Target: Biotin transporter
Amino acid sequence: MERQIAYIALFAALIAALGFLPPIPTPIGVPVTAQTLGVMLAGTILGAKRGGLAALLLIVLVIIGFPLLSGGRGGLGIIQGPTAGFLLGWPIAAFVTGLVMEKWRSGNLFLIAAVASILGGIIVLYSLGVLGLTINTKLSAKEALIGSLIYIPGDIVKAIIAGFITQGIAKARPNALLSRAQR
Model:
């Protein structure tokens, strides 16, 4: 049990640490950050439940005021800004990424982790992010979706990186890949 809690805290810290890399501003108000790579890795390495909890832990810390988002942002106000759908979607994205990892048991691990990251960390996350943009801005759903397309190439690169990192961890420390642990 303690090990599970430590992994959840470690990956919440990893997602936060990736926020220290400078964000790249965009026209729609949602910056490009490295933190979604951490969300993808939480799912591919920890699995659905633990990965989702790691992202949720970070979001709770941010909402109560810790400046753990890129650019040193934090506080309750994040749920009213343009990034709200993306941020609040992180636990769901990590969960879906981890669920794909847990269910897809055979095949090339790099490919499985990359596809899981694309499904959870891009498709699911963008769905929630676009919804948040339409709620918290004056953008229509179409405008929010079109504006979000600029992130896809970078997020595909992040999914590929997550695939390589996950495969490397599986080779170096197979027992650390909790998403593949036998139940």
Notes: The first helix runs from residue 2 to 18. The mean pLDDT is 93.
